């Protein structure tokens, strides 16, 4: 294997050589700086996005906090109204309880009095029974006296009158005692019914008192709960005010941060443009120095690239002459995306033709120098139809692996790819960071020469190689 990165017989120390080589070194350093700026720009953009999200989140918090404060005000008012209603209800319940206790006490006293009356009536009934018994005995004595008076004749006539009077009195006494007994019995029965009913009423009154006490306890607990709710609402309101104050301080800070970040992003973008301009200037210096006769380590590879580009142009022209492809098909810029590819791959009207023509030229270039990584032709839009076999694998489900191993049928319309495809200069030597996917980059040189087909510029042949 040859090593074309060394140029035999290059005049050491020649001014043009020094200029060209120093421009290459400068270009490499500038690309490193450009890569750092790209990373910084991406980071700044991401930070701006995060800051914007943070500002949006802060706004959302502020809005939600305002709703919280409004809700707290409503809850506080409702709690106050509820507490006043509960307090009023508790007062009414306690007043009702007092009345119920008085009624229950009166009913209980009535029950007690009825019990006393019943006991008195029982005593009256007992005494009345004794009276009736005595009246019966008196009546018997009176009858016996009358009998003895009759036996006594005239002597007992006066005694007979007295005996008759006593007999009449005993009958009246017995009748009165019987009436009293009947009345006392009826009264006792009525009093007993009343006493039982009063007892039942007393039980209901006790239940009312118990329920009133339980209601009073429940209402007291409710009052305490409402009081705690009011305290919690007040605490929420205080904390919401704290959040409002914090958000009020956040807003200016976010604005300052956003302004500063945007200024930084603008400065980074401006620096990137200037750096890209310096890259182009350095590449032009190298190109002009080589054209003027300066020698660099890449001179032999430059000559090879130019020669290989002519071979590609001749092969394309031969394809048109032989009818394998038309001029219009070869120079078509219409691309059809291949479904389900990631990164996206596309087909052109000339892709099958380049698959047949280019591998013989491109694969041979890989054996010329150990530093060469790839050799591939691109059209003026950076479309690379046919890559080296090592980079032309079928795609897998992994986009990161695809980015590194499935690089054919893709459009590389970055700065390097477009310049390689669009430049009419004898050659273009660019230094760039090759994106291998997954955030991995490789610092490389990209050497390209224009592909001319029947006098018409088709694109460029790119040779990528390591330092």
Topology:
Elements: H1 15-152, H2 157-291, H3 299-322, H4 327-330, E1 336-337, E2 346-347, H5 351-357, H6 359-365, E3 372-379, E4 383-384, H7 399-405, E5 410-411, H8 415-422, E6 428-437, E7 440-453, E8 456-466
Describe the structure.
The protein is of the alpha+beta class and 467 residues long. The protein folds into two domains: 63-252, Methyl-accepting chemotaxis protein (Helix Hairpins, Orthogonal Bundle), CATH 1.10.287.950; 298-466, Beta-Lactamase (2-Layer Sandwich), CATH 3.30.450. It has helices spanning 15-152, 157-291, 299-322, 327-330, 351-357, 359-365, 399-405, 415-422; strands spanning 336-337, 346-347, 372-379, 383-384, 410-411, 428-437, 440-453, 456-466. β6 and β7 (440-453) form a beta hairpin. α1 packs antiparallel against α2. Residues 1-12 have low confidence and may be disordered.
Keywords:
467 residues; alpha+beta; Helix Hairpins; Beta-Lactamase; 2 domains; 4-stranded antiparallel beta sheet; two-stranded antiparallel sheet; 8 helices; rod-shaped; disordered N terminus
Provide the low-confidence segments as ranges.
Answer: 1-12
What is the radius of gyration?
61 Å
Going by CATH, the homologous superfamily of the largest domain would be Methyl-accepting chemotaxis protein
Strand order of the largest sheet: 3-8-7-6
According to DSSP, the number of beta strands is: 8
CATH third-level topology of the largest domain: Helix Hairpins
- The coarse overall form would be rod-shaped
Largest sheet: 4 strands, antiparallel
Provide the CATH top-level class of the largest domain.
Mainly Alpha
Beta fraction of the residues? 5-15%
């Amino acid at each position: 294997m040859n090593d074309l990165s060394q140029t035999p017989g290059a005049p050491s120390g020649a001014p043009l050589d020094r200029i060209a080589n120093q421009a290459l070194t400068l270009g490499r350093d500038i690309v490193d700086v450009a890569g750092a700026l790209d990373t910084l720009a991406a980071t700044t953009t991401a930070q701006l996005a995060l800051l914007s999200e943070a500002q949006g989140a802060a706004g959302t918090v502020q809005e939600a906090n305002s709703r919280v404060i409004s809700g707290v005000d409503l809850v506080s008012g409702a709690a106050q109204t509820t507490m006043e209603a509960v307090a009023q209800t508790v007062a009414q319940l306690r007043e009702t309880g007092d009345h119920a206790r008085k009624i229950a006490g009166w009913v209980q006293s009535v029950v007690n009095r009825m019990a006393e009356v019943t006991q008195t009536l029982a005593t009256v009934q007992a005494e009345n029974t004794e009276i009736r018994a005595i009246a019966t005995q008196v009546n018997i004595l009176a009858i016996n006296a009358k009998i003895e008076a009759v036996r006594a004749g005239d002597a007992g006539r006066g005694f007979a009158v007295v005996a008759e009077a006593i007999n009449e009195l005993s009958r009246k006494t017995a009748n009165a005692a019987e009436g009293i007994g009947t009345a006392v019995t009826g009264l006792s029965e009525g009093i007993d019914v009343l006493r039982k009913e009063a007892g039942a009423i007393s039980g209901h009154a006790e239940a009312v008192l118990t329920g009133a006490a339980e209601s009073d306890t429940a209402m007291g607990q409710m009052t305490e709960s409402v009081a705690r709710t009011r305290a919690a609402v007040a605490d929420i309101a205080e904390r919401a005010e704290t959040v409002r104050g914090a958000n009020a301080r956040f807003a200016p800070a976010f604005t300052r941060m956003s302004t500063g970040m945007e200024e930084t992003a603008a400065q980074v973008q401006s620096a990137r443009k200037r750096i890209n301009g310096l890259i182009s200037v350095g590449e032009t210096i190298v190109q002009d120095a080589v054209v003027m006769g300066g020698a660099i380590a890449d001179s032999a590879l430059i000559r090879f690239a130019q020669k290989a580009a002519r071979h590609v142009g001749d092969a394309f022209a031969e394809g048109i002459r032989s009818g394998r492809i038309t001029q219009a098909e070869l120079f078509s810029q219409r691309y059809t995306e291949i479904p389900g590819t990631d990164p996206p791959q596309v087909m052109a009207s000339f892709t099958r033709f380049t698959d047949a023509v280019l591998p013989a030229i491109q694969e041979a270039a890989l054996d010329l120098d150990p530093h060469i990584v790839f050799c591939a032709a691109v059209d003026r839009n950076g479309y690379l139809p046919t890559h080296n076999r090592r980079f032309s694998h079928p795609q897998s489900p992994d986009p990161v692996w695809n980015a590194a191993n499935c690089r054919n049928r893709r459009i590389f319309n970055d700065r390097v790819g477009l310049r390689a495809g669009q430049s009419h200069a004898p050659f273009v030597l660019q230094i760039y960071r090759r994106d291998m996917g997954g955030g991995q980059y490789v610092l490389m040189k990209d050497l390209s020469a224009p592909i001319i087909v029947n006098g018409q510029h088709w694109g460029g042949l790119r040779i990528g190689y390591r330092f």
